[in-house]
C-alpha cells in the first residue's frame, strides 16, 4: 500500500541536520523528495567522508531522496528551479536569511509561480527581530535558548553543550515534517498554499518546561533571579556562581535523587525512573531501603531526617552494586518499576526489542552497499511508512529529473559542461 503522502512532491534546498531530517521523514511517508545540492555536494556529504562525496552523516539524514546538483547562482539553474516548482507541492529551505531572495528561491518568488505551494522556511532564530540575520547551528541555539545552561554540565568553568545529539536540530526536523503535513491537510480543505516558518530557537524553547511564568506565583522569583544574575555578571563572578543561582530556582530535588537516576551494579550500569510517589515506594521496597519520607509524621524540615535522606542516597549506591544488572531488572520488572540497562547505540542494531518492532531497516546504497539504520519512527496500519531508497549519490538523479521537465539529452549535457549541474 502507498504511504500517506504518496503523490506529494517536495523540493529541498537543505543542508546539515534539521531540514534534511524533516524531508527524510516526509519521504518515509511516501513523498517524492528532490534535494537540490551545490555542485560540490552539501557540506554534510563532505564531513568525514568514507568514500568520495559520501559520509555517514549525510546518508543518515537523506534516505529516500533524489539528488539534483545545481549552481544556483546561474540564470539557467534558476530557470530549472522555476520550471520544477510548477509541479511541486512543498519547498523546504534552510539558508541564511538573506540567501533565498538573492537566489530567487524565496516564498514571494516561488508562490507567484505556484500559488498552491507550501513553503517551509527554517532559520536559526526566526525571520523577525534583532537576531534574525544571524546564521546559527545547534550549539549556538543551545547556548542562546537556555538549553546549555539547563544541562548543568561545566568543565573548567565553562558550560558544555548537550553533546549526545543535536537536540534543537533533530526536534526542529520533526517540527518541519509535522507542520508540512498540517499545511497539506489545510490545503486539501481550502486549496490554498502557505508559508511555514520554523526555527531552532522556537523549538528549543518549546522543549523546556522551565520556559514559562505564572504571573501570580513565579514572576517575582524570576525577576529576583535576574537581578542577582546581573549583579554576578557585573562583579565578573565565575559561571558556576550563576549556575548555582539557577539551580536554586528548581527547589528541592532530593525526592528524585534516589529513584530517578543511574546506578552502578555488580556488572554494569542501570537506570531507574520513578516520577510518582507510588513508584518510588515500590522501588524502595525492591532496593530494601527505609525511606523516612514514606513514614507517618515525616517532617521535611527536620535536620535529622534531612541527614538520614542524604545518607540513604549514598547507601543506595552500595546496595545497587551488590547484584548484577540482570537480577535488578528482574526484581524491578516484578514490582512494575521503570528500569533499564545503560547501553551503547551500537548494541541496538541487534537488540531483540528493536528488531521485534521493526525499528531497523536495511537499504542498498548505490556506492556504499548495504546499510542498516533506524527506520521510520512511527507505524501506520493502512498507509504504512517505509524508506523508498538509501540516500542518493551526488547527481544520481540529474538526468531523470531534468528529462522529466522536458530538457533534451543535448541540453542536459550542455548544462553539465558549463557547470550548471553535474
By DSSP, the count of extended strands is: 13
Shape annotation: globular
User: Radius of gyration, Cα only, in angstroms?
Assistant: 26 Å
Structural class: alpha/beta
**What's the story with the biggest beta sheet?**
6 strands, parallel
User: How far apart lie the N and C ends?
Assistant: 34 Å
Mean pLDDT, rounded to whole units? 94
Residues in β-strands, percent: 5-15%
Q: Uncertain regions: pLDDT < 50 for 5+ in a row?
A: none
Percent range of helical residues: 40-55%
Annotation field: number of helices: 18
Provide the spatial order of strands within the biggest beta sheet: 3-2-1-4-5-8
Keywords:
422 residues, alpha/beta, 18 helices
How would you describe this structure to a colleague?
The chain contains 18 helices and 13 strands. With 422 residues, it is an alpha/beta fold. The strands form four sheets. A six-stranded parallel sheet has the order 3-2-1-4-5-8. Strands 9-10-11 form a three-stranded antiparallel sheet, covered by helices on one side. The mean pLDDT is 94.
